[in-house]
Write a structure and sequence with these properties.
Elements: H1 2-5, E1 11-16, H2 20-28, E2 32-39, E3 42-43, H3 45-55, E4 59-62, H4 76-88, E5 92-97, H5 110-114, E6 119-124, E7 136-139, H6 142-155, H7 161-172, H8 175-200, E8 204-205, E9 214-218, H9 225-233, E10 240-241, E11 255-259, H10 260-263, H11 266-278
Parallel strand pairs: 1-2, 1-4, 4-5, 5-6
Antiparallel strand pairs: 2-3, 6-7, 8-9, 9-11, 10-11
Helix pairs in contact: 3-4
């Protein structure tokens, strides 16, 4: 999508905070990247409208659900407003949804409301199946799909046929649906336990979703998440500090991205207590 739509010097929008690898890919393409502040219910639509008026961007790369790193979901009202602005200002929306299967099928998505008229939907099976299965897909209009398929054949000789066939079998034989039921149940339980832990330790949580692989939180007495990560790393626990998800990584951030599964590991509790005792 970046190769097709983003020539050097083009202005594009991203969620801020957002996915740092996307920032890097866009900068590698020579794009001028501007951030739309992320709120608990989706993008800041006032900031988005102002950027559309003054900067005339070509695309907006956003993650509506299970947002990385904040764990927030877009609301129906905000999704409708974003689509209104996109139509008014001729903006193309690129909706990244790698954690789609962790969420209920009834969850609000820009591409569902828009029916792919002004949206490109990017999905993946790598998070829900296995990180070793690097299989994803793009949903878009017929004409664009044909062009992107041609471009893909120029960039890549082929994908992994073994991985693609494995995903195909899982989908066709019904294994996937059964797997998702268990996966969502486990995630819901883990999310609640992680929220309970954060509340017990008087942490601030950006948004409390019932099913969220990531939680965006601050820890008392730790105004710089980098220093927190360094202290935890001394106890062999890795934490993702918030500044790496900022469009401007030089900014100090008190926020950390917490993986709910990792937080339930007893080693995390031991490391956090040991860090507190050293302080």
């Amino acid at each position: 999508v970046i190769r097709y739509f983003v020539p050097p010097g083009a202005t594009v929008l991203v969620d801020d905070p957002g996915y740092y690898l996307l920032f890097g890919k866009l900068k590698l393409a020579g794009a001028r990247v501007l951030g739309v502040p992320r709120q608990a219910d989706g993008p800041d639509v006032q900031a988005l409208e102002q950027l559309l008026l003054t900067e005339r961007p070509r695309l907006f790369f956003t993650q509506s659900l299970a947002h990385n790193p904040t764990g927030s979901d877009i609301s129906a009202a905000k999704a409708y407003r974003v689509l209104q602005l996109a139509e008014r200002h001729n903006l193309l929306l690129v909706e990244n949804d790698p954690l789609a299967d962790f969420k209920p099928t009834s969850s609000v998505r820009l591409s569902t409301l828009d029916q792919l008229e002004r949206t490109i939907y990017i999905g993946s099976f790598s998070k829900s199946f296995s990180a070793a299965l690097r299989v994803g897909f793009i949903a878009c209009s017929d004409a664009l799909a044909s062009d992107l398929a041609d471009l893909r054949s120029l960039i890549h000789v082929s994908g992994s046929e073994y991985c693609e066939r494995m995903v195909d079998v899982m989908l066709r034989e019904g294994h996937y649906e059964r797997h998702l039921v268990r996966l969502r149940q486990r995630l819901g339980k883990a999310t609640q336990q992680a929220l309970d832990w954060l509340e017990m330790h008087e942490c601030e949580v950006f948004v409390r979703n019932p099913q969220s692989l990531y939680l965006w939180a601050t820890f008392p007495g730790n105004p710089d998440a980098v220093r927190l990560a360094e202290r935890l790393l001394a106890h062999k626990v890795t934490m993702a500090p918030g500044h790496v998800f900022n469009l401007d990584p030089s900014q100090t951030s008190p926020w950390s991205r917490c993986n709910v599964g990792a937080m339930l590991d007893p080693r995390f509790e031991v490391a956090y207590r040991a860090m507190q005792e050293v302080r």
